[in-house]
Design brief:
Layout: E1 5-8, H1 10-14, H2 24-35, E2 41-46, H3 59-65, E3 73-77, H4 81-88, E4 94-100, H5 103-110, H6 114-128, E5 134-140, H7 153-164, E6 170-174, H8 182-195, E7 200-204, H9 212-222, E8 226-229, H10 249-258, H11 267-274, H12 277-281, H13 288-292, H14 303-307
Helix pairs in contact: 2-3, 8-9, 10-11
Length: about 325
């Protein structure tokens, strides 16, 4: 049974997209609950300016207040040197840095050219790299950009190489607006793994076009063993308006466990946590397993089927196909 490493992003990537501010105490309680579920990593919050992301303006308080479980890595998004200083003051295990491999997307999302982003992140890495905190770089739009279209494989490999040369521990390949498809995912993932065997490679899928689970299969075939996912499928991207967000954790874990993979994650535990989300965010989530139940959550057999007390013909009325 192959071991996979599941990395939860709902409390950062999901919560930052919600219009309703989630109380600090509720954020802390959610992270604490998720810490008991067997994740390899939890992305807790973001140290972006509170003016830019007011939904996560309580980053320090959350990080200082959560109960950390040994074996779980607690990572945060760090955009710049100021964010790095704030994060380091909270004892984070990993800093997650973000830029896009697409020039138009990077300009739209970060208000900088790619070279400006790289220069800024290089500074952050030089500061964080002096201590025990690991660095991961999330590269957005590696599978396609909604403004540029396809992104060349060599361009993706070039950016991975530039960050690998700076000594980062890992790189996340992000399907930012759900443009990926399985054979593409397999080919790109395999190329990155073969060229950079020393890097910790993570795949981050969005379910914008309903292909996140299929894309996961493509990544698995390439040998990927780390996956980001979001409880309840929270999150999204402003460049895919109205579309669903990140791949849903419970849907992904449910599939992987049925296929015989060891995710290390307690599915019942994350379902219990997911069930609390609608009350926190004020709307339903796109979670399929929370709605329909696990595959073998069986229903009681109606009594009349034991006794045949009703006419048999009624069983065929409106039958499902």
């Amino acid at each position: 049974m192959k071991r996979l490493y599941m990395q939860e992003v709902a409390t950062r990537d999901g919560f930052q997209n919600e219009a309703t501010f989630i109380d600090t105490a509720d954020k802390i309680a959610m992270v604490n609950a998720l810490s008991q579920c067997g994740y390899a990593k939890i992305e807790v919050t973001s140290f972006t300016s509170p003016k830019a992301i007011p939904a996560l303006r309580d980053a320090e308080e959350v990080m200082h207040s959560i109960t950390r479980k040994p074996g779980v890595e607690y990572t945060v998004l760090v955009p710049n040197l100021r964010g790095a200083e704030r994060a380091l003051g909270c004892g984070v295990d990993e800093a997650n840095l973000v830029m896009s491999v697409s020039e138009p997307h990077n300009r739209s999302n970060l208000r900088m050219t790619r070279e400006q982003s790289f220069a800024q992140l290089k500074e952050v890495i030089s500061v964080i790299g002096q201590g025990p905190v690991a660095v991961n770089v999330s590269l957005s739009t590696v599978f396609g950009c909604p403004m540029q279209g396809d992104v060349a494989l060599n361009e993706v490999l070039g950016w991975v190489d530039r960050f690998a040369s700076l000594g980062v521990r890992g790189v996340t390949l992000c399907d930012t607006t759900g443009m990926a498809y399985p054979s593409q995912v397999q080919a790109l993932s395999l190329a990155v793994i073969q060229r950079f065997p020393e890097l910790q490679i993570t795949l981050h899928f969005h379910n914008t076009r309903g292909m996140a689970l299929a894309n996961t299969l493509g990544a698995l075939q390439a040998g990927v063993d780390r996956f980001d996912s979001s409880l309840g499928g929270l999150g999204g991207c402003p460049y895919a308006p109205g579309a669903s967000g990140n791949v849903c954790t419970e849907d992904l874990v449910h599939m992987l466990q049925l296929m015989g993979y060891d995710t290390g994650v307690n599915l019942d535990g994350i379902l219990a946590a997911s069930a609390k989300l609608p009350g926190l965010i004020g709307h339903p989530t796109p979670s399929q397993i929370l709605t329909a139940g696990k595959r073998l959550d069986l229903h009681p057999i109606p009594e009349h089927l034991h006794t045949l007390s009703k006419q048999v013909v009624s069983a065929f009325t409106g039958a499902n196909k």
